[in-house]
Amino acid sequence: VVLALQLNLPRLWSGFQIIGDGTGPSDFAENAVVLGTGLIVLTTLINALGVRLMALINSAGVIATADLKTGDAGLKLRLTGPFSASPVGAGSRLLAVNEKGLVQVVDINGAEGVLAGQLQLSLNEAAKELILSTPSLSGAHVFVRSDSTLWRLGE
User: Fold this and answer.
1) How many CA atoms lie within 13 A of 140 on its CB side?
2) Cα separation of 150 and 37, whole Å?
């Protein structure tokens, strides 16, 4: 990402070349680090100001939430694990995918979380295929990636 920022932003406006003028031996790399740091700070601020609910899941499959404004603990629910990926949320749902490809959707409307649905992805067991990455949300789709396959779920 920082390379893309460095390659494109200074072309749009020279003010994005903060370190040097781009001709020095280390100007490119140093400026890429500065632009990347700025991106991390910006996205962290947006998330800190816009996120209301924080969710985490431990490797055993216990998902827990907390309200970031009040600090109140929310629900705790045991899912089928083991997990390496973080859960993602959209509206009143949290989506968690375990290492064995079981997609689990949790409804967080009530005081106690409710498992709203499950879907088992077909993994190549002979190749010991695992899901280790956090799912991505885009519009009405969920993208899940293993070490060898990419799935698009949704309409």
Assistant:
1) 2
2) 29
From edge to edge, which strands make up the β-sheet containing 62-67? 53-57, 62-67, 73-78
Question: What length is written for the chain?
Answer: 155
Q: Which residue has tokens 């060898």?
A: 148
**Rounded Cα–Cα distance for residues 20 and 4 (Å):** 18
Place 52 in a pLDDT band, splitting at 50, 70 and 90.
Answer: low
Place of tokens 């005081």: 111
Q: How far apart are CA 36 and CA 22, in angstroms?
A: 16
Answering whether pTM is above 0.70, one says no
Alpha carbon 7 to chain centroid distance? Answer: 25
Q: Work out the angle between the directed axes of helices 2-12 and 27-50 (0-180°, nearest 10).
A: 100
